[in-house]
Amino acid sequence: MAQSQFSKVDEYGFERPEDFDYLAYESFMSQYLPILAKRSKKWTSLMPSGSVFRRKRTLKAYIRKGIPNEFREKVWMRVSGAQEARSKFGADFYKQLVAAAHDPSVVETIRTDLPRTFPENIFFNATDEHQNMLYRVLIAYAHHNKRIGYCQGMNYVAGLILLVTKNEDSTFWLLKALVENVLPDYYSPTMDGLLTDIDAISELVRLKYPEVSRHVTELGLPWPVITTKWFVCIYCEVLPTE
């Protein structure tokens, strides 16, 4: 059998499943790569030289089709509000947070969670570099937003952003934008936003997949038990990375 050109590890450092069909994937990518190349050209023409996107309807349509990897950091920073926050607080703000004196109990909690974050990922388990970057991002955010501090699940969110952007500073600002703007009250003490979304998904399942809803009810499993980790980790452990 011909050997596939694709590695056993994807570009983000995750090992492919044992039953991964390399030949089927290679066949798919041979047809999909020209499409990605066309999208990349379109994104190049759309990207602003400044900080504001024009043609917002076009931007929305492009995002729904997927942002090419080489543009993700820049697009995420701009559309999430992370770039605006960075400009407001200053370019050195993250470094100042990292250098500050930190709560020992928060330090201990974060350090305990670091080895549990994507333990199978080659970037996180090969050397200490990614774990150290992730630690600095998490402790900086906990110090910056003491009302929320550090919550389990943030390590996966920040870890995935770090794997995509490969930029520690951007990861901090994107985590801040996600926690405070995109997913408000997911990680707050009351978790009101999280509970609202859990109620929404349970109702959607009841309406769209009544047999699944009945099965869950018969098992006696509350929806928060099933879905809380999905939401707080933004599904990064249960869905493919892309």
Ordered list of secondary-structure elements with their pairings:
Elements: H1 22-46, H2 56-65, H3 69-80, H4 82-89, H5 93-99, H6 104-113, H7 122-126, H8 129-144, H9 154-165, H10 168-182, H11 192-208, H12 210-219, H13 223-232
Please explain how this structure is put together.
The protein has 242 residues and is an all-alpha fold. 65% of the residues lie in helices and 0% in strands.
Largest sheet: none
H/E element sequence:
HHHHHHHHHHHHH
Poorly predicted tracts of residues: none
| Discrete helix count | 13
Summed over residues and divided by their number, the pLDDT gives a mean of: 91
Give the structure's gist in a few sentences.
With 242 residues, the protein is mainly α. The protein is built from 13 helices and no strands.
Sum up the structure in keywords.
Rab_GAP_TBC_domain, GTPase activation, Gh regulated tbc protein-1, mainly alpha, Rab-GAP_TBC_sf, small GTPase binding, 242 residues, 0% strand
